[in-house]
Amino acid sequence: MAKQSIFGRISTLVKANINALLDSAEDPQKMLDQLVRDYTNSIADAESAIAETIGNLRLLERDHQEDLQAAQEWGNKALAASRKADELRGAGNTADADKFDNLAKIALQRQISEENEAKAIAPSIATQTEVVEKLKDGLNGMKGKLEQLKAKRSELLSRAKVAEAQTKVHDAVRSIDVLDPTSELGRFEDKVRRQEALAAGKQELAASSLDAQFTQLEDVGELTEVEARLAALKTGSPRSAIEG
């Protein structure tokens, strides 16, 4: 009962604290730190309760030992009184011998009483001893759980930091995704492409104008040749294309 009541109260308290922390959890680190503190405090409460239980057990053991010691002392007194009575009866002093036999009987009664008290305490001592051992085991288990909690706390905080970093990297990558037409880089790329197209158009236009100029030069050359031949006809010496 003592074991159940102690750890039952602690278990209820710990569960209530955990549920309250989970319901109001905003900062994982603060929640885990508070959980470690609460569990540490629960262990301290358990240690205090167990120490009280052990103290009660030691009192029972002391009382039991005192009863056994008292029973042994009364037994010794009964033996001494009985021997004295035998000695007196052997000497013919029956009256005094009877007195010492009566004292021996009283001592034996007290011995029996002390032995009965010792017997009555013995089951309680056995039960309390078993309870204390279980409480000690339970306390050691709680301490082991606390170490696991601390280790789990470190693991969860590390995982939370990694997840946070991964989220930041993911968000950063998304913000510069060149395939995203809404991103700044995408719009800048569109602007560069338009500028390149404009430059290519101007270059093509310039090339077209140059070709036209060369065509005009060829046309001028043909007209000059015609004029030369006409002049030759007028002078009576016609030119041929072969003469150039």
UniProtKB/TrEMBL annotation:
Keyword list, A-Z: Coiled coil
Recorded coiled-coil stretches: 132-166
Domain of life: Bacteria
Keyword Coiled coil assigned: yes
Signal peptide limits: none
Classification via InterPro entries: PspA_VIPP1
Family: Belongs to the PspA/Vipp/IM30 family.
Protein name listed in UniProt: PspA/IM30 family protein
